[in-house]
DNA sequence: AAATGTCCCAACCGCTCTCCC
DNA sequence: TGGGAGAGCGGTTGGGACATT
C-alpha cells in the first residue's frame, strides 16, 4: 500500500509505516519517552502504539523531538568548531555533534555536505542570500551569531574555535595531540616534515575546499610541499586555532 | 509567469559496533 | 566464544521552499 502524503510516498510494507511522521505519531513517541525514557527503541514502537520501526523511532527522537534541539542556521562559531573537529576526526558526525549542544549529527552532516563537500561553489549571491536570511532570523530573536560571518569572523577568531568551544562547553577535551604529546605530527615539533605532510594532506582537503569560484578549490598558501623547512618549522605548530581568516576566499589561514 | 537551480532538511538504508546469553 | 538482537553511525535520497533566470 502506498499513500501519497506531503509529496512522499508513505509505504506500509506489512505492518510498518514509512515516510514523514505525523503530529499524532510525534505525540505518541514524545509521551512514551517522557514516561519511560530513551532506549529499547524496538519495543518503544509497539508499546507506544506506533507502526514504526525502532530505528525510525530513535531517529525521529534524536533528530527532531529530543528537547533542547536548536533550529536554524549554524552560527559562525559552530561552523568553526565543525571545521576544526572534522579536520581531527573526519566524518565522525556523532562525535562532532557532542561538542555542539542542540545540534544533531544529521544536521551537521547535512550542513557539511551542503557547504563544504561539494566541488562547485554556489554563487556569492546565494551566500549573501543565506547570510541575509540568517541576519533576519537573528534580528527576530535578538540572539545568535553576528549578522555577517565574513565581516565579523576575524574578530571572532581572536579566540580559536577550540578555545571558544572550551569556554562555552567546558567538557571539550584538549586536542588529542595535546593530550598525547608523543604524537609526532603538526601540532608539536614534528620529527620530519614528511610527518607533518601526512597530516597536512588530510587537512588540505577540507581547509581550502570551501566553495570556490572555479571549481578547482581555493588553494591558499598551504602547499606544504613547496615550503622551506624554515617555513615549515614556523608553520607546523600553528594549527588548531585559526590564526587568520581569508575573508575574500572564505578560508582559514593557519 | 514559468522554468531552472540551489539550499535545506527529514528520513531511509546498510553497515558496524556492542551487549547479552 | 560465537551468534543474535538491539543500538548507533555514516551515506544517500527525495522533495519542499525559495531565488534566479
Automatic annotation (TrEMBL):
Pfam families: Myb_DNA-binding. InterPro entries: EOBI/EOBII-like_plant, Homeodomain-like_sf, Myb_dom, SANT/Myb. One of its GO terms (cellular component) is nucleus. It comes from the Eukaryota. GO terms for molecular function: DNA-binding transcription factor activity; sequence-specific DNA binding. The keyword Transcription applies. The keyword DNA-binding applies. It is found in: Nucleus. Residues 17-65, 66-116 form the Myb-like domain. CDD domains: SANT (cd00167). Residues 134-155 are annotated as: Disordered. Keywords: DNA-binding, Nucleus, Repeat, Transcription, Transcription regulation. Residues 17-69, 70-120 form the HTH myb-type domain. This is MYB-like transcription factor EOBII isoform X1. The gene is LOC113701275.
Amino acid at each position: 500500500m502506498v499513500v501519497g502524503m506531503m509529496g512522499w510516498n508513505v509505504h506500509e510494507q506489512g505492518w510498518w509505516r514509512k515516510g514523514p511522521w505525523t503530529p499524532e505519531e510525534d505525540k505518541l513517541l514524545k509521551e512514551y519517552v517522557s514516561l519511560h525514557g530513551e532506549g529499547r527503541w524496538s519495543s518503544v514502537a509497539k508499546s507506544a502504539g506506533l507502526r514504526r520501526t525502532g530505528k525510525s523511532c530513535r531517529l525521529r527522537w534524536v533528530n527532531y523531538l529530543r528537547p533542547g534541539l536548536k533550529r536554524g542556521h549554524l552560527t559562525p562559531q559552530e561552523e568553526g568548531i565543525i571545521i576544526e573537529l572534522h579536520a581531527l576526526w573526519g566524518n565522525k558526525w556523532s562525535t562532532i555533534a557532542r561538542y555542539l549542544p542542540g545540534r544533531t549529527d544529521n544536521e551537521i552532516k547535512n550542513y557539511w555536505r551542503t557547504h563544504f563537500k561539494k566541488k562547485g561553489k554556489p554563487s556569492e549571491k546565494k551566500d549573501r542570500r543565506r547570510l541575509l536570511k540568517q541576519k533576519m532570523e537573528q534580528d527576530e530573536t535578538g540572539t545568535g551569531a553576528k549578522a555577517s560571518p565574513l565581516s565579523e569572523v576575524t574578530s571572532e577568531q581572536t579566540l580559536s574555535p577550540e578555545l571558544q568551544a572550551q569556554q562555552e562547553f567546558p567538557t571539550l577535551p584538549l586536542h588529542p595531540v595535546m593530550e598525547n604529546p608523543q604524537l609526532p605530527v603538526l601540532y608539536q615539533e614534528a620529527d620530519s616534515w614528511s610527518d607533518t605532510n601526512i597530516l597536512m594532506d588530510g587537512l588540505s582537503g577540507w581547509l581550502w575546499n570551501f566553495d570556490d569560484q572555479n571549481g578547482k578549490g581555493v588553494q591558499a598558501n598551504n602547499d606544504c610541499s613547496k615550503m622551506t623547512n624554515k617555513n615549515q618549522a614556523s608553520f607546523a605548530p600553528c594549527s588548531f586555532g585559526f590564526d587568520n581568516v581569508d575573508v575574500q576566499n572564505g578560508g582559514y589561514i593557519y
